[in-house]
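G., the chain you wanted modeled:
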Amino acid sequence: MSAVRPGRARLPVSRGRAALLLLLLCAGGCSPAYVLRAGWEEARILSARRPIRAVIHDTTVARETRDKLRLVLDARDFAERDLGLRAGASYESFTQLHRDTLVLIVLAAPEFDLRWKTWWFPIVGHVPYKGFFDFDDARAEAAGLAEEGYDVSVRPVSAFSTLGWFPDPIMSTTLRLDSLGLVETVIHEITHSTYFPTGQADFNESFANFVGYRGAIEFFCEAVADESACVRAQWRWEDTRVFGHFFHSILAPLEEVYASAMPDDEKRAAKREVFEAAAQRFETEYKPRLHAQYGSLDPDGLDNAWMISRLLYYTRLDDFERVYESHGALVPSVEALMREAAAGDPWEALTRLVSPADTGPAETGPGEADDSATTKGSR
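Predicted structure as tokens:
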């Protein structure tokens, strides 16, 4: 989600970061040039690192940068000390990039199916995005997928996690976030390093969303006792859950269209009507419930790729919150989820932890199947 700033803010895009160990190794579909470019860029990022503590004491560095880096260290220490997360050697260093976009990622979905296209990578398994340091290559990949009939989304990310395999630095692209967004991002990414079941991209991102936002609330409300930031952190989590409700409200009417026997032209028109109705519903039903101000939705920009990029990060957030409420704090909530999920599917573990009497309407999301799958799974 984009950082929320005072005044008008953009409608949130799917999170500007990703767990991208995928950029280091790949198999079955990645060209040697892709692998070499990814490895070269990662090496450049690592070789340009400076210890954060050294940068903080370097008076030639802008004060705003140094202040934000102090916050990064505070958030990192909080994540390890108070939340029990494992940061390893990550976020102890800083890399200054000479561009405002770190990576472009490509996401795709069939025109009449809410099933994301996936790419397979070692360690992380199937993931519904492919990252590119070469932006022309990203656009070429997107154009090729569009020619194959996919709905395609290309978006920037400002941070990624190598899941502890390398000492991830905080990058200048991430420091563009405000203080709340920065703390939430650090905790989100350290969550990936702590717990990352393979082939479960929607769970990993939605779970890290929950831990990141709830962790930021505990950081500002308890660790640093900043009353103003505490309230704003709570508002952001509430807004995030409202957006989760909105995105999932579009699922049923879309799936009804896709399951119908209508010809493709009629399906295309009906799909457009669903997204137009969603844009109007956002204005009248959801926007009034938000604490921050957001722009309007343009139906021309809505398609299945847009949908899956949101569902990736906004699935069953209320169920994560119910687990939090039942335990009264973040640490026991996270420990219960990881313990329950140790034996199998993390979504099933979440369901077991949520009382059936309290679940309310189920939120469903696209399946985590591979590219050849023809069915969708419910979450």
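The chain has a mean pLDDT of 84.

Shout if anything looks off.
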